[in-house]
Amino acid sequence: MVEGLDSILAIVDKEIRKPLEIWLKKHKVTIHTNALARGTEIKGKGAARKVQLSFEKDGEEHSVKVDKVLVTVGRKPNTKGWGLENMGVRMDASGRFIRIDRQCRTSVPSVYAIGDVAGEPMLAHKASAQGEMVAEIIAGHPREFDKAAIPAIIFTEPEIVSVGLTPDEAKERGEQVIVGKFPLAASGRALSIEAEKTGGFIRVTARESDHVILGIQAVGSHVAELHGEFILALEMGALLEDVADTVHAHPTMTEAFHESVLKTLGQAIHTT
Predict the structure, then answer these.
(1) Among candidate residues 95, 113, 138, the one where a domain is terminated
(2) What was the pLDDT predicted at 68?
(3) For residue 271, what pLDDT is reported?
(4) How many Cα atoms sit within 13 Å of 48 on the Cβ side?
(5) Residue 18 lies in a domain
(6) Is 250 in the active site?
(7) Which of 148, 202, 216, 247 could be cross-linked to 260 through a Cys-Cys bond (beta carbons 3.0 to 4.6 Å apart)?
(8) The total number of structural domains that make up the chain
(9) pLDDT reported for residue 85
(10) What is the mean pLDDT of the segment spanning 71-99?
(11) pTM of the model
């Protein structure tokens, strides 16, 4: 892996990405951080065909032979090449995205903007939700896009899920928080599907004064399937006690979320 920043997945905090770093090290994946890919050169034909990948690190040029190259350099809004500049719609302060209101209306009457052109997060499920809302608005129904949070999932092994605020983000907003973290190694269901081998966990952040859940992050095998319960808790404005008092079936992965909430309250039954 050739990474331009000083760590992989710099968009998530160190605690969350640590299990992924452990997995990569365990599987002997070589990672070059603070390195910039410079280009590729194809050599040979047929079965002997190889790609020479060159990159710069610490001011020196390096090259490695690889079978294929996967380039992942983030996302950018699809605002070029289809006539946006001729429509007269206003852009936001950054100049990157189309300015919209809570109904996805632009500055031009009867013109709506959804998805990547309308701002972060540039995720398919956000675009779909906005598109459905706009269709209902055009049909005459009163709707607004007012989401407590939008889930973000990184489909690595182990998987990473983030919904709402991280502990640091909550503190930056002036919140006094309590945080609980429950390891998958203490979950019977996680053990049965070997999800604990990644060193994963579920972390819950809640406001200290009223126990409103502000954010949930998880890392581990199969945790992407838990995001529905995470996002529902935030959209419903759930308290820690609401989840703690909800019976979760045994043995399931969702028990780990239940236990993480109990841990935040200082009431976890299983731990390691």
Answers:
(1) 138
(2) 86
(3) 63
(4) 3
(5) yes
(6) yes
(7) 202
(8) 3
(9) 87
(10) 91
(11) 0.87
